């Protein structure tokens, strides 16, 4: 008999009769109710508590796919237990959707590679003649094929949204040839990646022309196919970090060669916290660590997992890794991939064909049978925490996975999370410091404050939220042929539309939020539920025609700068301007190529980009997070500001460092004092002391129970009942504290009211035991609410 994990909210495994050979970890097709579903064989057993007559039979076993290994199932088991979810709810969503569809299995097995498209020999002139200039997307695709030589499906789709149909038509005409290339042969030239942008901390080649320095030069700096370890001279900090990781890899390999079975008592390699200032060369450390891991002597086909926080950073880092490792198979894993492409990449990792796996948080769940190193870039980023379904932390699971496998894990950041910093202070993590920038003569930027209160008292004109000193600094950069970056973490034109006559404001009818004005599209849009409406010609309440936008977003700043600097070349990068696939990549390429004078952006531009000619960073409206109710707001703001400040002056300049100008009405705030000194350590010490006194994480551990209902009273009633259950003798534990149920700050989203209940304890083990018993009681409740539990919440 087989005990099978299925994707259901039920906690249990399901027993099935098995009349054929199967192993734990294999995918099977089984009947469930009236449906046929895919599950994972978790255990084989001779006994079942279900009566033999009621047991149903496994429909089919996917023997052609290697079983999911013990280490992968251990990871799923841990995530299930820690985050209080059923094994099936964790394991099945971690597998790409196409692999959970039996009818697709034969086709996936046949596609043991990547489809590549190239122009047939001698067909280029005919193809170009048959693609008229008015079909610009198809023209781009044809030119891309001609320039690159060959494109895969994703690259083609980035150039033309209907690439699949167009290429099929061209192939039928004989103009294009379709080939399936095995993963181990899918090697791209450095030139193919020239549009990919750049990666955090890549060290540039000194070209003497910083205005045209782009990815090609940066890739050249990282490329040495004869020596994956690279030939650049390392800084002292880089050399020490590479040496420490090298020693850990050697020790881990020796432990495996010793053939001694590992247990929970076997010493594990402590995580490395790679604490390097922006531009210190963390990427070079990653590259050398990966090279060491891939050539470890105990495993021939060693694999490495590299995590990045956001999808838009993936192609940039991918370009650098492909350039350094042209002979290694690299695949990416993230939610923007087409389902078929994601399934093929996942299969390449599972079969051991892909040696480097680069992806966002979902990649931590991938099956990697020969994993020898994990790298988590920008480990502090909240994007590593999943906010839907299984609310897991990819960083925390990466640390657990490395500890379980007794392999090194590298957590890189210029502004580590306070959790990680505290563990390093306690000696549980090994801190590797890189306090200098890697480029010779490049120094950290000057951070200065523009006190908006002083500007107001002096009655200086403020142009759409932009002060005179900031505008003067931008003008100076334009005259010098340098680039400026303006950071405002609020997209849209204005946060709200207002009527001065009666006080009407553009509220969302479905949420406790305002509709944001998007002027270019002439729409009001809710950023929470997605509701849209036209901009009214008059006030809906009083008929007043004079409706005014309040506040500023990136669109309004872009408009103001266009009026003030009519000859400047502007670009805006936010979620609105990068909706189309490949658009963000194209905009970043323009910045790197020197085709943009002033870049306006949200947090998308704040990290992971090496803008060689940006010498000025201006921060607008930094005060909004200073007095938040969220105790993590200061930590996030400091990280955000230090990251965006790090975009300035990354190349050496004869006339001094780059400049960062921050507009604020609270110039005396201690956060800004630490920022001006680039003193993350001092800021972290002050924040940790505040949290220690207040008994906040990392000095306590929390869980958050959220309830959603059509009526707020129903959600509150459920949480009150849950609190009462926690107080029963069977669950009562003096080490557990429960806060009173309260409505959430934003009570209503998409027509649903929300409330929350916080549980905390200074003892993680006690909290986990309490949650396990509490959840079993809560699942038995019948209430008109949807609810979920989040362990280690980042937002309360």
UniProtKB/TrEMBL annotation:
Which is a GO BP term held by this UniProt record? double-strand break repair
* Chain positions recorded as Zn(2+) 1 binding sites: 499, 502, 539, 542
PROSITE patterns to which the protein is assigned, alphabetical: HELICASE_ATP_BIND_1
Protein encoded by which gene: priA
> Could you say which EC number(s) this protein's record lists?
5.6.2.4
Q: What is the name of the protein in this document?
A: Replication restart protein PriA
Source organism: Pandoraea oxalativorans
What Pfam families does the entry give?
DEAD, Helicase_C, PriA_3primeBD, PriA_C, Zn_ribbon_PriA
Q: Where is the composition biased (Acidic residues)?
A: 190-209
- Region feature (Disordered): 188-211
Domain Helicase ATP-binding positions? 272-434
Major enzyme class? isomerase
Q: Name one GO cellular component term.
A: primosome complex
**CDD domains linked:** DEXHc_priA (cd17929), SF2_C_priA (cd18804)
Q: For this protein, what reaction is catalysed?
A: ATP + H2O = ADP + phosphate + H(+); Couples ATP hydrolysis with the unwinding of duplex DNA by translocating in the 3'-5' direction
The yes or no answer to whether the keyword ATP-binding is present is yes
What does the note under cofactor report?
Binds 2 zinc ions per subunit.
* Assembly behavior: Component of the replication restart primosome.
What cofactor does this chain's UniProt record say it requires?
A: Zn(2+)
This molecule's function is given as: Initiates the restart of stalled replication forks, which reloads the replicative helicase on sites other than the origin of replication. Recognizes and binds to abandoned replication forks and remodels them to uncover a helicase loading site. Promotes assembly of the primosome at these replication forks.
One annotated GO molecular function is: zinc ion binding
Q: Which SUPFAM superfamilies match?
A: P-loop containing nucleoside triphosphate hydrolases
Residues that bind Zn(2+) 2, according to the entry?
A: 508, 511, 526, 529
Q: Which InterPro entries match?
A: DEAD/DEAH_box_helicase_dom, Helicase_ATP-bd, Helicase_C-like, P-loop_NTPase, PriA, PriA_3primeBD, PriA_3primeBD_sf, PriA_C
Q: Does the keyword DNA-binding apply?
A: yes
Keyword annotations: ATP-binding, DNA replication, DNA-binding, Helicase, Hydrolase, Isomerase, Metal-binding, Nucleotide-binding, Primosome, Zinc
Q: Which family does it belong to?
A: Belongs to the helicase family. PriA subfamily.
């Amino acid at each position: 008999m087989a005990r099978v994990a299925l994707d259901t909210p039920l906690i249990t495994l399901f027993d099935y009769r098995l009349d054929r050979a199967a192993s734990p970890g294999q995918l099977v097709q089984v009947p469930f109710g009236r449906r046929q579903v895919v599950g994972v064989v978790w255990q084989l057993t001779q006994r079942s508590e279900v009566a033999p007559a009621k047991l149903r039979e496994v429909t089919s076993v996917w023997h052609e796919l290697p079983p999911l290994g013990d280490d992968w199932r251990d990871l799923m088991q841990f995530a299930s237990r820690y985050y209080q979810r059923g094994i099936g709810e964790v394991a099945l969503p971690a597998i790409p959707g196409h692999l959970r569809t039996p009818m697709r299995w034969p086709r996936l097995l046949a596609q043991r590679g990547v489809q590549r498209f190239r122009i047939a020999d001698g067909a280029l002139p005919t193809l170009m003649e048959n693609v008229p200039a008015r079909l610009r997307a198809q023209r781009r695709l044809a030119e891309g094929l001609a320039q690159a030589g060959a494109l895969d499906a994703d690259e083609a789709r980035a150039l033309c949204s209907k690439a699949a149909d167009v290429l099929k038509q061209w192939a039928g005409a004989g103009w294009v040839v379709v080939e399936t290339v095995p993963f181990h042969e899918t090697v791209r030239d450095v030139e193919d990646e020239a549009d990919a942008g750049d990666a955090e901390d890549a060290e540039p080649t000194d070209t003497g022309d910083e205005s045209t320095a782009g990815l090609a030069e940066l890739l050249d700096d990282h490329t040495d196919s004869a020596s994956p370890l690279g030939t650049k001279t390392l800084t002292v900090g880089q050399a020490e970090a590479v040496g420490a990781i090298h020693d850990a890899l050697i020790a881990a390999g020796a432990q495996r060669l010793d053939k001694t079975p590992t247990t929970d008592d076997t010493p594990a390699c402590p995580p490395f916290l790679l604490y390097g200032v922006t531009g210190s060369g963390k990427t070079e450390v990653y590259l050398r660590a990966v090279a060491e891991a891939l050539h470890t002597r105990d495993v021939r086909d060693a694999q490495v997992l590299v995590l990045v926080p956001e999808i838009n950073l993936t192609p940039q880092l991918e370009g650098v890794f492909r350039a350094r490792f042209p002979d290694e198979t690299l695949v990416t894993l993230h939610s923007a991939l087409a389902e078929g492409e994601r399934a093929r990449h996942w299969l390449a990792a599972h079969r051991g064909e892909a040696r480097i796996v680069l992806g966002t948080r979902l990649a931590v769940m991938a099956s990697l049978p020969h994993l020898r190193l994990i790298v988590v870039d920008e480990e502090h980023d909240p994007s590593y925490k999943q906010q839907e379904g299984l609310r897991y932390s990819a960083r925390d699971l990466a640390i657990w996975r490395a500890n379980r496998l007794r392999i090194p894990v590298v957590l890189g950041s210029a502004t580590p999370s306070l959790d990680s910093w505290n563990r390093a202070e306690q000696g549980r993590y090994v801190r590797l410091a890189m306090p200098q920038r890697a480029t010779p003569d490049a120094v950290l930027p000057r951070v200065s404050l523009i006190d908006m209160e002083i500007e107001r008292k002096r009655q200086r004109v403020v142009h759409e939220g932009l002060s005179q000193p900031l505008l003067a600094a931008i003008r100076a950069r334009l005259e010098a042929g340098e680039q400026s970056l303006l950071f405002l973490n609020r997209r849209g034109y204005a946060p709200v539309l207002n009527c001065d006559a009666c006080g009407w404001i553009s509220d969302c009818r479905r949420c406790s939020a305002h509709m944001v004005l998007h002027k270019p599209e002439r729409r009001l849009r809710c950023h929470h539920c997605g509701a849209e409406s036209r901009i009214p010609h008059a006030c809906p309440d009083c008929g007043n025609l004079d409706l005014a936008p309040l506040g500023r977003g990136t669109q309004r700043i872009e408009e103001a700068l266009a009026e003030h600097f009519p000859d400047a070349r502007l670009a805006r990068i936010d979620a609105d301007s990068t909706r189309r696939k490949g658009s963000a990549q194209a905009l970043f390429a323009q910045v790197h190529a020197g085709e943009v004078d002033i870049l306006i952006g949200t947090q998308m531009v704040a990290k992971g980009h090496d803008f060689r000619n940006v010498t000025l960073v201006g921060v607008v409206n930094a005060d909004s997070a200073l007095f938040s109710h969220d105790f993590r707001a200061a930590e996030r703001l400091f990280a955000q500001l230090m990251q965006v400040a790090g975009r300035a002056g990354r190349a050496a300049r004869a006339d001094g460092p780059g400049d960062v100008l921050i507009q604020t009405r609270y110039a005396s705030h201690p956060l800004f004092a630490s920022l001006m000194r680039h003193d993350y350590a001092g800021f972290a010490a002050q924040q940790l002391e505040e949290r220690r006194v207040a008994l906040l994480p990392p000095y306590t551990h929390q869980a958050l129970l959220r309830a959603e209902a059509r009526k707020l009273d129903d959600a509150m009633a459920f949480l009150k009942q849950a609190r009462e259950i926690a107080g029963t003798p069977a669950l009562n534990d003096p080490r557990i504290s429960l806060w009173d149920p309260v409505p959430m700050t934003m009570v209503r989203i998409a027509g649903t009211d929300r409330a929350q209940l916080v549980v905390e304890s200074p003892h993680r083990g006690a909290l986990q035991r309490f949650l396990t018993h509490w959840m079993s009681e809560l699942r038995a409740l019948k209430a008109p609410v949807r609810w979920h539990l989040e362990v280690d919440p980042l937002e309360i």
